[in-house]
Specification:
There is one protein chain. The protein is 21% helix and 36% strand. By secondary structure, the protein is of the alpha+beta class. The strands form three sheets. Strands 3, 4, 7, 8 and 9 form a five-stranded antiparallel β-sheet that branches. Strands 1-2-6-5 form a four-stranded antiparallel β-sheet, with no helix packed on it. The chain is globular, with a radius of gyration of 23 Å.
Length: 185
């Protein structure tokens, strides 16, 4: 009686522990990056990574390179990131920390995927070779997804018209409604 109950209880506990361990492992496979901003079309999305704890000095900007690829269907954008000290240097005036940041304005609604390439090496920041330098954990290879909703902005907020782009003509054109931007004054 007691022994069977004890064995049954122990097996049940092991199953629960295994399931919890699996879930914890699945969660940690995702991104440790923090996604900030209004997740809406044409709005600025910020992805903030935890990386090496360094100082704001010339070699930091030369010897590290963060590139993040954002993908949704046939839309693919390679966006360079930057060192962000403590992630809040505008308020704290900090010149050191472990935050690395990229900004992105999605041009479509739905699910977006991002994948980071983070490399270190002498002058890697100005090297156009994707494989230059050495990959650096934990940021390199980090990936995740986020969902983008339609913009809720109306004119005069420019996000209602999308990003300005050069289309080869004299005037810049808004990507959303294809109207033109005429600077007067």
């Amino acid at each position: 009686g007691h022994m069977n109950y004890y064995i049954s209880y122990k097996l049940r506990f092991k199953k629960i522990a295994a399931v919890l361990f699996f879930i914890a492992g699945f969660i940690s496979i995702g991104s440790a990056a923090e996604i900030k901003g209004e997740l809406k079309k044409w709005h600025r999305v910020t992805v903030l990574f935890d990386g090496p704890d360094v100082q704001e000095e010339p070699q930091t900007f030369r010897n590290y390179r963060l590139n993040v690829t954002f993908t949704k269907g046939s839309n693919t954008f390679l966006v360079p990131g930057h060192y962000a000290a403590d992630g809040n240097a505008g308020q704290t005036s900090s010149s050191s920390g472990n935050k690395w940041r990229v900004y992105f304005s999605p041009n479509a609604t739905g699910e977006w995927t991002y994948q980071a390439s983070f490399r270190t090496g002498k002058d890697v920041a100005v090297n156009l070779d994707a494989d230059a330098g050495t990959p650096l954990a934990p940021i390199d290879g980090e990936s995740g997804t986020f969902i983008v909703a339609p913009t809720n902005k109306e004119l005069p907020d420019f996000r209602a018209r999308g990003l300005l782009r050069h289309t080869g003509g004299h005037f810049q054109q808004f990507a959303e409604d294809e109207s033109y931007w005429l600077a007067i004054g």
